Backbone:
């Protein structure tokens, strides 16, 4: 049984109106963006946005960034997509440590037809992202530079790290491992291999042999809550012609709460392949 996320209902939007669809977003809401691996803040940073000075497109991207900073785990509806998720809370599922992904998979549907895809031997489950630094049994000192290091990830194509923290109700701090400024609202969900390699070449993603990254000192100091998200992208396979068009993509991810004024360090929240 798959979990099927549903769009928001009219009841969900009842508190809004046409002029202000999200009245809970204060005009003075501010987002501060940092990027790049460095022990200190790089020149020209942070980039600062104030909500009431943004375009409608930027406001939408800012709302999404703020929402990501406040949710820990969930599945979300994606407009114009037919989505289903497994494992689910009703069917948690277990994948054995020695399980292999290679083989033939068939999708049977009642509305788009049936399709099969062969997964070759070189496309397999990715290992979990295993941090070796900092010590997650303790809350990292947010006033200091934080060095994140992890064990090698075989077969990985590229990785990306994102750290977020809330200062009070009106300020969101974002740091990205990208060495260049990223566009707000970029979707890094299920990327094709060519896209991952392109992002690595542009230094938006970290290279496959990269095993550490440093967050500048003090940028999250005073935050009520801080968390880190890391994603590693692996090989996949797709059919060039089929209906529906199948694609298998491997990805490994990690979310870690790093504490803050409002909470103690909590360790790993979610780790998945």
Residues:
């Amino acid at each position: 049984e798959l979990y099927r996320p549903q769009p928001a209902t009219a009841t969900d939007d009842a508190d809004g109106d046409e002029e202000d669809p999200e009245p809970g977003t204060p005009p003075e809401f501010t987002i501060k963006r940092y990027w790049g691996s460095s022990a200190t803040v790089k020149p020209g940073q942070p980039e600062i946005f104030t909500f009431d000075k943004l375009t409608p497109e930027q406001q939408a991207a800012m709302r999404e960034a703020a929402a990501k900073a406040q949710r820990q785990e969930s599945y979300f509806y994606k407009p114009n997509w037919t989505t289903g998720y497994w494992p689910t809370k009703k069917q948690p599922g277990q994948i054995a440590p020695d399980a292999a992904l290679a083989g033939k998979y068939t999708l049977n549907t009642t509305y788009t037809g049936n399709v099969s895809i062969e997964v070759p031997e070189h496309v397999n489950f990715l290992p979990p992202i295993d941090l070796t630094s900092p010590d997650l049994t303790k809350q990292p000192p947010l006033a200091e530079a934080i060095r994140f290091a992890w064990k090698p990830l075989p077969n990985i194509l590229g990785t990306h790290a994102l750290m977020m923290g809330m200062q009070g109700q009106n300020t969101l701090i974002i740091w990205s491992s990208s060495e260049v400024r990223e566009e707000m609202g970029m979707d890094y969900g299920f990327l094709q291999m060519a896209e991952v390699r392109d992002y690595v070449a542009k230094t938006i993603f970290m290279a496959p042999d990269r095993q550490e990254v440093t967050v500048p000192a003090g940028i999250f100091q005073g935050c009520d809550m801080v968390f880190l998200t890391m994603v590693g992208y692996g090989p996949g396979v797709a059919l060039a012609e089929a209906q529906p068009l199948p694609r298998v993509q491997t990805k490994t991810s990690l979310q870690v709460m790093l504490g803050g004024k409002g909470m103690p360090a909590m360790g790993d929240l979610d780790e998945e392949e």
User: Anything to note?
Assistant: The two ends are 19 Å apart (CA to CA). Residues 103-272 form one domain.
